[in-house]
């Protein structure tokens, strides 16, 4: 099975077809269970009786450019950060393209303003798809 998995580096690019086809720089983290995406603002609202959120993203590190998108709430989870702090986070499910693969991904939304990468790719998204070469970066190109 391992021979069937695509090799990726410790950092790569992800593209989001349903978020303005934005390209986001991500860190691959097999220690993190869930993937996370930088969100500047998350506003809950109700649409046809269902919970939705309006999310403001800043997809480029060092840029104030914002993209706003609405999503049905997939879940709300307690997430423990690497520092041990537990927060409630909204979870969305949206398509992502990483290398040649497109699949639906669950993403928690949080501020990653002080982090080097706008996205963290966790082990749930890695499982059955990728092997990580921890010595390499941007194996899949741009």
From TrEMBL:
Listed GO molecular functions?
peptidase activity
Pfam families on file:
Zn_protease (PF05618)
> InterPro entries per the record?
Asp_endopeptidase, Peptidase_aspartic_dom_sf
Q: Does the keyword Protease apply?
A: yes
The identity of this protein, by name, is ATP-dependent zinc protease
According to the record, the segments passing through the membrane are none
| Domain of life (superkingdom) | Bacteria
Q: Name one GO biological process term.
A: proteolysis
Q: Does the keyword Protease apply?
A: yes
- Which Gene3D superfamilies does the annotation name? Acid Proteases
Going by the UniProt record, its keywords in alphabetical order are: Hydrolase, Protease
| Record-annotated Retropepsin-like aspartic endopeptidase domain positions | 7-139
